[in-house]
Each structure stands twice: as C-alpha cells, then as structure tokens.
Amino acid sequence: MSSSIKDLLESTISHIPKNSQYSVSQKDLKYCLANIIGKKKEFLITNPEYILSISEEKVFLKSVKLLNEGIPLAYVIGNQEFYGYKYSVNKHVLIPRPETEIIIPKILQYGDSVFKKKNNIMLIDAGSGSGCIGLTIAGERPSWKILLTEKSLKAIDVLRENSHKYKYKNCSIIASDWLKGLNKNIADIIISNPPYIEHGTSQIDNTVFKYEPHSSLFSSDRGLKDIKTLIFESKLALVKGGFLFMENGLGQSEDIIRNLKENYYEDIDIILDYNNIKRFTVSRNS
Q1: Where are the beta strands (DSSP E) in the chain?
Q2: Which domain CATH number covers 128?
Q3: Would you say residue 77 lies in a domain?
Q4: Is residue 200 part of a domain?
Q5: What pLDDT, in 10s, does the model give residues 79-103?
Q6: I need a surface site. Which of 37, 112, 155, 285 has the fewest CB within 10 A?
Q7: Whole-model pTM above 0.85?
Q8: Which domain holds residue 13?
Q9: 138 in the same domain as 48
Q10: What would the pLDDT profile of 163-184 be if each residue is shown by its tens digit?
Q11: What's the domain count of the chain?
C-alpha cells in the first residue's frame, strides 16, 4: 500500500543519515516530491493526506537515495528553475545558479535601448550549456534574434531539448568553440558564463567538484584563459558599440578590466552578486 505525503515525508526525514558528509534538506525532499507528483510545493502543505501511486513512491525513494549520495537535486530530478523558467539539466551541463539571474534584467535593459534605435537586435549566448541565459532572453524578448553557441555535443542535446520545450522561433543553435567561425560584426550583444575557476583551487564545493562538468568550471591561466579568449573573439563578432556581458569569479575583475582595455573596450561596468562579490563585467566594443 502506498503512503500519504505526510507519512512518506516524516518517514524519509527520520531516516536521513545524521553523520553523512552530504546534507539533504527537508526543502530539497519536498521539492523533489512535488516534482515527482507533478504538483507545486504548496500542494504538499494543503494536501498532506494525498496518496502517492506505487510508482511515484518508488521514484521518490530512489531519488532520496541519490540525494543521500550527494548528487545535486537538479541532476536527480532532471531540471532547474531559472528566472521563472524550468530547464532540463544533466551531468553534461552546469546547474543554473540564482546569482546568474541578476544579469538578466541588465541584458534586457541594454538590449531594449539597442532595439529602440535599430528595430532589430542580434544576441549571442556563447558557451550556452543548458541555454538558461540565452533561452530566458528569447522568452522575455520574442522579437530579438538569439544565437546559442556550444562546443559540447552532449550539452547541445540538452540545449536543443530546452529550446524545443519552449518552441521559440527566434533562436538558432550552432556547434562552435566560443565564437570561432562566426561572421564579423554580427552581434549587438554577446553574453557568456565561461569557465573561470582556477585549477587546483580549494574554494569549490565538494558536490560541485564531484558532479558538475569540469570543462564548464575550470580554466587555466588562473581561471582567465576562456575569459581572455571571449574578450578577443567578441571584439571581432560584435558590431561597433556592441556590448559584452561576462560572468566571472572572485578577485578576477582587475585582470579582466585590464584585458578589456588592452582590447579597446570602453564603458566598463562591474555588477555585484547577492554577496557583494564582483560577479559580472559589462563592456562596450569601441
């Protein structure tokens, strides 16, 4: 006989290992259960006596086992919410972070000013991964043209799945190592969340290190190699006056600003994340 929501959660919470190196929160358990039964989290509160099907209970218990092993919730349930959208994710793409949402309104603000002047706009999401940034922009601005580039074929499978889910008609996906092979002066805005963590650093969560793709996390030259590549290649792909948005790591802003100036970018701006870390760099192609 299957369990009710209330009984299943109480039983599961009571059996969570207390000395595990991985912390499974009640919040994650509830989110996982709601996802499995196809309901919102509030449903668990208002319908505690709801009886799960046998298959739903089996999936939930299997998911709890994976969570106890340290596998991130997003990989266990296969999706992650981002800016009001829900994107499929797996081990081949980074899990979208809440702090990355900070940059979305800024991109929309800059893009709206461009669109107002030109009545069209081309935006490139370089190294798109799951597509959470570029596809979110596509959803928020259906009249913009969005180009998503990604070099990992396995990541492109996830990217295509997310694009097909929302059926956007303003998006194109191409396999490309950053911006290589693209025409010159085609983009009004380029956005990217490149790898920026230094190899060998201890400043990374063990779960992130163990389960998320290293090719999307780590970069050589103190974490700056891919950022420098983007700065150089964006110089060619951007129109004059076009904008480059990049996410970056702690303590990298000074080096990034120096490199941007060496490549003749202007109007450089720094955007802080929720912890007041210099997380994003915006600049204009001169």
Answers
A1: 79-82, 85-88, 122-126, 145-150, 171-175, 187-192, 197-198, 218-219, 238-247, 265-272, 278-285
A2: 3.40.50.150
A3: no
A4: yes
A5: 999 999 999 999 999 999 999 999 9
A6: 112
A7: yes
A8: 5-70
A9: no
A10: 999 999 999 999 999 999 999 9
A11: 2
